[in-house]
Design the sequence.
């Protein structure tokens, strides 16, 4: 592919953003009163409700294998009206689709990286992510919102005396980067994602450590240098998202 272009102040994107600019993001906390912690993350035109509930037991495999501490699992779904054409519910097909299964496993891994499972105690946190509106980046929005909901849930458990100390280790967030028409773009909307020759989803914590990298060429390849360019732009986005999460939790 050769050297990619980085034009942060040149030709604006379709939604008038610079190449290295995030879409507007905000969190509406406590959106689901029956959840232990919840938030609605509005990220551009993508909207995802993230809720955390607590189950005072652990999976059977942990008991059988003598694994101590707690566990975190996730479920992810796109509501039928979240896309332009109605999306059939998984229950109507009798099984979860491969994409949803992949994403919910990713969310689970990301949240487990945020928590000391021993300090969590013998309980399971269920992280449920429901996409209300999809315009690209639903998995990164789900991860970013899930951490906020999880942090709120831990605060409630502390307030109720169910935890002696917070098990939260580090904040976790995620962002997408892509190559569209030889330009490295941060935080792709749907039309950009559909046109991207390279997609990268980046999950990191507040210590600057990687949790997961998902990079793939769509009928294209990319070099070490090009990957470095994408990671540089992605890290900048991660830093801004960590600040947005901190602000939402401070409020």
Sequence:
């Amino acid at each position: 592919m050769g050297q990619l272009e980085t034009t942060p102040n040149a030709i604006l994107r379709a939604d008038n953003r610079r190449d290295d600019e995030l879409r507007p993001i905000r969190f509406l906390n406590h959106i689901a009163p029956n959840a232990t912690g919840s938030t609605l993350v509005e990220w551009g035109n993508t909207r995802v409700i993230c809720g955390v509930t607590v189950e005072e037991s652990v999976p059977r495999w942990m008991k059988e294998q003598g694994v101590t501490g707690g566990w975190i699992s996730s479920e992810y779904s796109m509501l039928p009206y979240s896309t332009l054409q109605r999306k059939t519910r998984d229950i109507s097909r009798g099984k979860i689709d491969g994409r949803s299964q992949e994403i919910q496993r990713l969310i689970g891994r990301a949240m487990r990286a945020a928590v000391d499972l021993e300090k969590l105690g013998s309980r399971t946190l269920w992280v449920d992510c429901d996409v209300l509106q999809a315009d690209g980046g639903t998995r990164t929005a789900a991860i970013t919102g899930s951490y906020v909901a999880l942090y709120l849930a831990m605060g409630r458990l502390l307030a109720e005396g169910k935890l002696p100390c917070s098990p939260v280790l580090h904040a976790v967030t995620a962002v997408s980067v892509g190559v569209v028409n030889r330009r490295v773009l941060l935080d792709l909307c749907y039309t950009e994602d559909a046109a991207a020759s390279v997609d990268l989803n980046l999950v990191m914590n507040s210590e600057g450590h990687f949790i997961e990298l998902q990079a793939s060429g769509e009928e294209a390849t990319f070099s070490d240098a090009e990957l470095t360019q994408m990671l540089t732009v992605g890290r900048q986005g991660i830093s801004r998202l960590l600040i947005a999460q901190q602000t939402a939790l401070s409020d």
Observations:
- Residues 25-250 form a domain with the Ribosomal Protein S5; domain 2 fold (CATH 3.30.230.70).
- The first strand starts at residue 25 and ends at 29.
- The chain has seven helices and nine strands.
